Amino acid sequence: MTMTTGISSIGTKKNSINRAKVSSTRRTRRVRAALSSSGSKGSNFVVRASSSSSSPSDDENNSLGIKDTIIVGGGVSGLSTAFTMKSKNASCDIMVTEIRDRVGGNVTSKNDGQYIWEEGPNSYQPGDAVLKLACDAGMKEDIVLANPDSDRYVLWDGELRALPKDIPTAVLGDFLTWPGKIRAGLGAVGIRMPKEEGKEETVKEFVSRNLGEEAFQRLIEPFCSGVYAGDPAMLSAEAATGRVSVLENKGPWPGLFPGALKAQYEGAKKKKENPRDPRLPVIEGQTVGSFKGGLQTLPEGLAKQLGEGIVKLQWKLIKTEKTEDGLFSLTYETPEGEKKVKAKSVVFTQPAYVVADTVRSIAPEAAKSFEKFYYPPVASVTVAYKRDAFKLDGRSALPEGGLTGFGQLHPRTQKVRTLGTIYSSYLWADDGRCPKDEFMILNYIGGARDVEIQKLNEDELVQAVHADALKTILKPDTPLPKKVGVRMWSKAIPQFNLGHWKLLDEAKELLKKEKCSEEDGLFLGGNYVAGVAFGRCVEYGVDQASDVLNFLDKQRRTV
Ligand SMILES: Cc1cc2nc3c(=O)[nH]c(=O)nc-3n(C[C@H](O)[C@H](O)[C@H](O)COP(=O)(O)OP(=O)(O)OC[C@H]3O[C@@H](n4cnc5c(N)ncnc54)[C@H](O)[C@@H]3O)c2cc1C
Ligand SMILES: C=Cc1c2[nH]c(c1C)Cc1[nH]c(c(CCC(=O)O)c1C)Cc1[nH]c(c(C)c1CCC(=O)O)Cc1[nH]c(c(C)c1C=C)C2
């Protein structure tokens, strides 16, 4: 089993690097020269194989000169920022440093010649930010979109029920009982208890109050598994559901429904005012996206565009310091030994618990705040069965057998340990990810309410998901599946629990006290800041590129 124990703890005391002392006049001259290299904006980003501004003598001294920006972390967040910065200003001197020997971070697509499978995220919501980035990076042809009719199923009372796609199906279907529908309907139009003044509600409190207990149990509780692998009694409605929680008070009168109508109206107006980039593929219904060969095609494509000189693999950040000139000095362990790099700005996109170690030397109090973000363990278990192994229970099958749909979720009340199962062979049927006579599924197991999952070994995990599949989708006596790939993420997804935004503000405030705020050139990114969705990380990363370029521009003009 591939075991990802999060990112190993970073030592800060180990380094004793001899830094050449630079006289203050020389230092000022170097800073000026470097600042002026920010260059003019607007030049086009040219694809190139390699680019680095470091001189051989710099390398000899274990130093790479002064960068405009160092982006720490080669996941989708960091690469989106890096690629956008270079696209907007080709002369901007940046570097992306990644501790692993590959880019992508959580995004982990595997290919053994027979199967292609995902060990981290399985798909993304095809919002314009991801699609645009892919088009800008020359990967439009690599985008693959799943069938928009793919149902999401929720297990309830032994039956897999399709999530209603619209209000008529919600009203007429059997997803909720009639009392449940009436309670949800009344609540949605505003006939419900108002929120207690000043209280931050959990997702469970927010949904139960607005839509009733049944809608919470059947609809939202599994959704919390399917997005956060989280506990709805701990997740913050405000932080975890973002735009949904604000709907309650957005409309002409209180309630989620009037709020949703207003949001829809505003969205349509905005769309009219900002016509869509014509290069972007048309998106139908509730589809999800991937790339040919898997999600990792995107980060790999972005890194290739940036070039080897910019993306440094197996570079472990071990220390962050600030120089007297207000620069950041980062110390790395690299395959070529210890290196020190200075930069005018840094973007930290590594997980919060790694940022804690990274900033401990310059902001010990802030480090304590970063340690508090919680990432529970989740295992991804991809297996393949013969196509005729599945029972359909009235559902349609593909002509060659197997299941149709996006996948299924199992509310914790239904006594199935696996959180949910993705029907990979249906979603990416045209991408040749599995032998034709087999059907591949991706199971996620563990999460905030099942941290004991970490004690299971690879075979036990396969047995656990197989036992659960027998309860829901497999014909009785189906033999154990072919094991395709198993990965334990011991720190998987940051939980946007109660107090999430307050904790982030506190961490930023403590950094600011040490002159490490955005105004000083230290930018925080990554999924615990942006939101956990792949698409949201891209969107935030792209927006952050402008913030960093603005900082550099402002700094250049003030020196
Ligand atoms: C099991 C799982 C399933 C998921 N499923 C979905 C899904 O289906 N759809 C969806 O939208 N989202 C999903 N997500 C969430 C999504 O994948 C992530 O939120 C997103 O990929 C995070 O990207 P990131 O760049 O912010 O962080 P990361 O991917 O964590 O990238 C951070 C990078 O920093 C590097 N790093 C760490 N320490 C250092 C250091 N000291 N020096 C240098 N580099 C360092 C790491 O190696 C990593 O590459 C899933 C996540 C997991 C774990
Ligand atoms: C069971 C575990 C998980 C599954 N996916 C994730 C986990 C933890 C992670 C995840 N899934 C989605 C997102 C992005 C959310 C967004 O805002 O874009 C993340 C971080 C997408 C998603 N997956 C499901 C739903 C309902 C959503 C929201 C958007 C959409 O409808 O596409 C359902 C779902 N997730 C998983 C399964 C098995 C599943 C089944 C229906 C796995």
From TrEMBL:
Manner of cofactor binding, per the entry note: Binds 1 FAD per subunit.
Top enzyme category: oxidoreductase
Alphabetic keyword roster: Chloroplast, FAD, Flavoprotein, Heme biosynthesis, Oxidoreductase, Plastid, Porphyrin biosynthesis, Transit peptide
Compartment list: Plastid, Chloroplast
Coiled coil: none
Pfam families, A to Z: Amino_oxidase (PF01593)
Domain Amine oxidase residue range list: 76-549
Example GO biological process: protoporphyrinogen IX biosynthetic process
GO cellular component, one term: chloroplast thylakoid
InterPro entries, per database record: Amino_oxidase, FAD/NAD-bd_sf, Protoporphyrinogen_oxidase, Zeta_carotene_desat/Oxidored
Entry's Gene Ontology molecular function annotations: oxygen-dependent protoporphyrinogen oxidase activity
Keyword Oxidoreductase attached: yes
Alphabetized SUPFAM superfamilies for the sequence: FAD-linked reductases, C-terminal domain, FAD/NAD(P)-binding domain
Main location: plastid
Biological role stated in the UniProt entry: Catalyzes the 6-electron oxidation of protoporphyrinogen-IX to form protoporphyrin-IX.
Family to which the UniProt record says this protein belongs: Belongs to the protoporphyrinogen/coproporphyrinogen oxidase family. Protoporphyrinogen oxidase subfamily.
Protein name (record): Protoporphyrinogen oxidase
